[in-house]
């Protein structure tokens, strides 16, 4: 009996040639799977970044409210008048010592 030698690479290529549709479908499934993984990863990173930005927005909004409150407190008329009297020794002019200048 003579042993026949089979060329393995030729046999594999001919087998792939006979099953082109199945090979195409396998490749399509693999590409779709990797695309799904990529989209999921991008969605997770985008969601994470969105949450970080929302937290930063909330902290900035709280800081803005505190600054508005501080501004209204510092600009209060009675406080400004008290500081002017204490630190700058300012006082309201007396009517008798008040001088009016009229420009020509």
From TrEMBL:
Keywords, sorted A to Z: Cell cycle, Cell division, Cell inner membrane, Cell membrane, Membrane, Transmembrane, Transmembrane helix
Membrane spanning stretches: 21-39
Biological process, per Gene Ontology: FtsZ-dependent cytokinesis
Pfam family, one: FtsL
Membrane topology type: Single-pass type II membrane protein
Keyword Membrane belongs to the record: yes
Top-level taxon of the source organism: Bacteria
Location within or outside the cell: Cell inner membrane; Cell membrane
A cellular component term, taken from the record's GO annotations: cell division site
NCBIfam families registered for this protein in UniProt: ftsL_broad
Assembly and interaction partners: Part of a complex composed of FtsB, FtsL and FtsQ.
PANTHER family per UniProt: CELL DIVISION PROTEIN FTSL (PTHR37479:SF1)
Family stated for the protein in its record: Belongs to the FtsL family.
Function: Essential cell division protein. May link together the upstream cell division proteins, which are predominantly cytoplasmic, with the downstream cell division proteins, which are predominantly periplasmic.
Protein name (record): Cell division protein FtsL
């Amino acid at each position: 009996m003579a042993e026949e030698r089979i060329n393995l690479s030729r046999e594999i290529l001919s087998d792939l040639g006979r099953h082109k549709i199945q090979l195409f479908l396998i490749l399509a499934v693999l590409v779709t799977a990797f695309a799904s993984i990529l989209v999921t990863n991008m969605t997770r990173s985008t969601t994470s970044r969105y949450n970080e930005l929302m937290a930063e927005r909330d902290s900035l909004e709280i800081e803005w409210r505190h600054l508005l409150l501080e501004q209204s407190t510092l600009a209060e008329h009675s406080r400004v008048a008290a500081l002017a009297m204490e630190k700058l020794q300012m006082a309201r002019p007396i009517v008798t010592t008040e001088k009016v200048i009229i420009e020509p």
